[in-house]
Write a sequence for this structure.
């Protein structure tokens, strides 16, 4: 098996393994003379760690026990009767259990305490021994000062004495086997080898994650535990030559499966970096069919530089089966911009206007006439229907308040095509970016992370945050399938999409149908062959209860029934606006054309979505492909099975029978 160092780029396959000198940590200490010396500390046993042999697993636990100050013994072993081959064992603290009562006149005093500390190891694929259960807590004091009195440690000392002493001190280093998932080439859909993926960018090795005591254990234990629970859990650590952790990326099975459905538009959230949080968290977030945020992966990045972002982006893309995103939304950041252009050259990269506008008080708050500047800036950004309107409004603001030398506004203007909504009308955002001043934006982990949240605290809260998100999605699925939507108008458009859309998307579309009644004076202004131009007037609220009339230009193509409004709500949100609906109704169109009913908003989107998404050149014999496809099928079974009690009983019975068949097949193969 090829060995791959963990401080390389994400370049490996699902069934590959790599060697990580992670069974020991180098700790620098200083003696009385002030000179430093190094010692090795064994990591505590963790669920998911694997070893090449039973003896290696025993020695590893024994070494840890020696440093902590307790002895160990094999308290239980399980053997296969046919081969007399050990396939499971329990290694316990030497104080585990209790001795049998002796009938002697002077029985020895009881030295055992029924200590629960132990590990259980299991033979995997007849080749490797994996830790499947761990208990680290003792019910008695442990002390490294008395470790030499335990039998298990004496055996280790005697074995060492028999060996020829080396000329130089031997460092106690053991191997931990970690398993990784197959990589998909960042620029293609097929599985690629290492040479196709490794970049030539040099990473600044002087930067790394600032971890406190307990952080590294919490992160590593979480990854090992998740990998054991679900083989499709993916994580990758980037270490420098000195063993410092620079970056770490991970994505659970649900995130990887969700990517196949919701990878069209992705936001890369860097709020923790921008606000200087203790954890440098990056979240990859999509939008599901209920317009809820869905997590597609996470990372901790050791430094806000182009090379570090490139490593994280490639790690993310490598574990997803499917094409890269079509649209990527980020905060305004030059390192992010350069990294996105490097890893996602074909994607449309946009800045989220909401992040930029949140900085207005900080950047402009001290200027004379700030309130007027802020109002004019909001008007230019959010209310410009045409590029010429934005240019005029911006120029008037700059001239009126003498802001020609303001470098921040100059930089924003130079990049206006990346963040001002009027320049982004041809991009599909799936409702991900706010396009009105009144709209807000919440980070995916909002409410779970604050400025001083530690790595360990975040790992503890991570599962809770995801469980709540998943519960909301499941409840939204159930409501969308079982609820009858209340109709508020007599418009056939409302009836038509009540049968298709999820509850939340229908509620938003329903608002547009109701908004048709605030539109008036729809009139034809020009004809160019089959293309007819209409002007639709609407009364809109401006401040408080005050309203003004705005005019919206709508193009209508009569042959193909194509329609486009200057407000471009369809691209921003994914459903037609009130102005377009008004023109369709004006022309006697009773049903919305199918091209304007996006499949991604439908109630059964996950059930009917093509499983392979049209990907080509994928190795169908690769286990990652099997897992990904089975997982998607399983989601459909779960969703269908939860619709009624009868469906639930059928699904549960069939799944139990299927698991019984798997167990029978495993027994026959022994």
């Amino acid at each position: 098996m090829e060995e791959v160092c963990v401080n390389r780029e994400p370049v490996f396959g699902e069934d590959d393994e790599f060697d990580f000198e992670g069974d020991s940590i180098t700790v620098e200490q200083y003696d009385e003379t002030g000179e430093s010396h190094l010692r090795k500390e064994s990591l505590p046993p963790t669920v998911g760690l694997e070893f090449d042999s039973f003896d290696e697993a025993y020695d590893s636990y024994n070494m840890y026990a020696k440093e902590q100050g307790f002895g160990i013994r094999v308290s239980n072993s399980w053997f296969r009767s046919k081969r007399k081959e050990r396939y499971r064992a329990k290694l316990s603290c030497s104080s585990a259990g209790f001795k049998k009562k002796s009938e002697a006149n002077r029985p020895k005093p009881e030295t055992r305490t029924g200590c629960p500390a132990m590990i259980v190891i299991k033979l995997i694929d007849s080749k490797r021994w994996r830790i499947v259960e761990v208990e680290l807590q003792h019910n008695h004091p442990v002390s490294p000062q008395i470790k030499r009195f335990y039998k298990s440690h004496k055996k280790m000392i005697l074995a060492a004495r028999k060996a020829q002493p080396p000329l130089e001190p031997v460092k106690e280093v053991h191997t931990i086997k970690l398993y990784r998932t197959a990589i998909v080439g960042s620029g293609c859909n097929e599985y690629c080898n290492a040479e196709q993926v490794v970049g030539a960018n040099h990473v600044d090795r002087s930067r790394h994650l600032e971890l406190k005591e307990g952080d590294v254990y919490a992160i590593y234990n979480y990854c090992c535990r998740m990998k054991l629970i679900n083989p499709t859990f993916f994580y990758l650590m980037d270490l420098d030559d000195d063993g410092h952790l620079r970056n770490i990326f991970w994505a659970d099975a649900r995130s990887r499966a969700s990517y196949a459905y919701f990878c069209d538009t992705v936001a890369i959230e860097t709020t923790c970096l921008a606000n200087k949080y203790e954890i440098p968290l990056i979240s990859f977030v999509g939008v599901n069919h209920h317009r809820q945020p869905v997590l597609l992966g996470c990372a901790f990045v050791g430094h806000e530089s182009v090379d570090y972002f490139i490593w994280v982006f490639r790690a993310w893309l490598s574990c997803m089966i499917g094409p890269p995103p079509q649209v990527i939304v980020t905060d305004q950041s030059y390192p992010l911009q350069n990294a996105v252009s490097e890893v996602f050259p074909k994607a449309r990269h946009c800045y989220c206007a909401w992040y930029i506008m949140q900085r207005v008080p900080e950047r402009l708050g001290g200027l004379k006439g700030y309130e007027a500047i802020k109002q004019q800036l909001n008007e230019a950004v959010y209310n410009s229907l045409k590029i010429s309107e934005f240019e005029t409004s911006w120029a008037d603001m700059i001239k009126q308040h003498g802001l020609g030398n303001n470098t921040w506004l100059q930089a924003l203007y130079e990049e206006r095509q990346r963040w001002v909504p009027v320049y982004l009308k041809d991009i599909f955002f799936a409702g991900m970016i706010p396009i009105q001043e009144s709209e807000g934006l919440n980070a995916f982990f909002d409410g779970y992370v604050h400025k001083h949240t530690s790595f360990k605290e975040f790992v503890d809260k991570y599962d809770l945050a995801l469980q709540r998100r998943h519960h909301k999605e499941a409840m939204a699925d159930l409501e969308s399938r079982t609820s009858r939507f209340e109709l508020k108008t007599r418009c056939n458009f409302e009836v038509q999409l009540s049968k298709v859309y999820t509850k939340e998307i229908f509620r938003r579309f329903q608002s547009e149908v109701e908004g048709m009644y605030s539109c008036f004076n729809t009139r034809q202004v020009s004809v160019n062959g089959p293309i007819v131009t209409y002007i639709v007037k609407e009364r809109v609220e401006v401040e408080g209860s005050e309203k003004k009339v705005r005019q919206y230009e709508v193009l209508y193509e009569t042959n193909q029934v194509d329609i486009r409004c200057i407000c471009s709500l369809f691209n921003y949100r994914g459903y037609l606006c009130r102005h377009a609906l008004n023109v369709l109704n004006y022309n006697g169109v009773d049903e919305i054309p199918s091209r304007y009913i996006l499949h991604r908003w439908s109630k059964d989107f996950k059930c009917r979505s093509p499983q392979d998404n049209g990907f080509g050149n994928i190795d169908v014999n690769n286990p990652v492909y099997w897992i990904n496809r089975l997982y998607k099928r399983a989601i459909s079974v779960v969703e269908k099975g939860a619709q009624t009690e009868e469906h639930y009983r059928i699904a549960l019975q069939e799944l139990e029978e299927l698991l019984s068949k798997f167990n029978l097949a495993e027994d026959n193969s022994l």
Remarks:
- The chain is about 35% helix and 20% strand.
